[in-house]
Design brief:
This protein is α/β, with parallel strands linked by helices. The chain has eight helices and ten strands. Helix 1 crosses helix 2. The model has no long low-confidence stretch (mean pLDDT 95).
Length: 253
């Protein structure tokens, strides 16, 4: 795992978006196409802004999977991740070869089965992810399941995760945040050849410190990224505020 620290969220997004673009271009050059995973949420704003602005990518050779989605939330809801990816990505790039969004209104078990069958056909070249305030990776809240091989699963959202979603302004009241979601599993994320992790903001600094410098384990789900040789974590200075100087100026793992 490598760490790149930028002075502010815009610079962080530029670095992460450029890195993601280069990895996608490399996969297209090597394999004739690229299979990617996209995350959502406030952490991805600037990364996606810079990725969609890169005119070098032939998006007709790209297949996209969706990282997670709330159960029971319609696509018109402001917090819908289907809506997020449509407005912030799909509507801003030329047509992709294929894309697979999670239907949070479908039967959750059947939807996981559908996605599991699909993603089994596509080895992932590049995954874009973030780290939650509670250290979650996708919607795998602590203690996360580090063992399941199932690509997509139904998860219960803990209270820290639900408070974060309310605090970021996605929902009008804490009680409006759904309690369940469909999430890509830890092991499926780790199967990605390359991972680009974007984490801005001071409110993430405690989780960043625990996950990037603490022991690897289910209580700090994103700590698993320490073990991935193709992972680069992009931080702004605020998010990196609790890292030791040794970590901040080097790499872990």
């Amino acid at each position: 795992m490598k760490i790149v620290i930028s002075p502010d969220p815009i610079a962080m997004g530029r670095a992460a978006g450029t890195a993601a673009a280069e990895l996608i271009l490399g996969s297209i050059a090597a394999h004739g196409g690229a299979h990617i995973i996209l995350a959502t949420g406030a952490s991805q704003f600037e990364t996606l802004n810079h990725l969609v602005a890169d005119k070098r990518i032939d998006w007709s050779k790209v297949t996209m999977f969706h990282l997670d989605e709330y159960i029971g939330l319609p696509p018109g809801h402001p917090a819908s991740f289907r809506r997020y990816l449509t407005e912030r990505f799909l509507d801003k790039v030329p047509a992709l070869k294929e894309y697979f969004l999670i239907d949070g209104e479908a039967d959750a078990v059947a939807e996981c089965d559908r996605l599991n069958q699909l993603i089994a056909k596509y080895p992932i070249d590049v995954a874009l992810v973030g780290i939650g305030e509670n250290g979650h990776l996708a919607f795998n809240d602590p203690p996360a399941d580090f063992e399941t091989e199932t690509p997509y699963l139904v998860v219960e959202l803990d209270e820290a995760c639900r408070r974060q979603q309310f605090g970021e302004g996605w929902f009008p009241a804490p009680g409006d945040v759904p309690r369940r979601a469909i999430s890509m599993s830890i092991r499926q994320i780790m199967r990605s050849a390359q991972i680009v992790c974007s984490v801005p903001d001071k409110r993430k600094s405690l989780a960043v410190g625990e996950c990037l410098e603490g022991p690897v384990g289910p209580l700090h789900p994103a700590s698993i990224l320490q073990t991935h040789p193709g992972c680069t974590v992009f931080l702004d200075e605020a998010a990196a505020g609790r890292l030791s100087k040794a970590t901040a100026h080097g790499q872990v793992g």
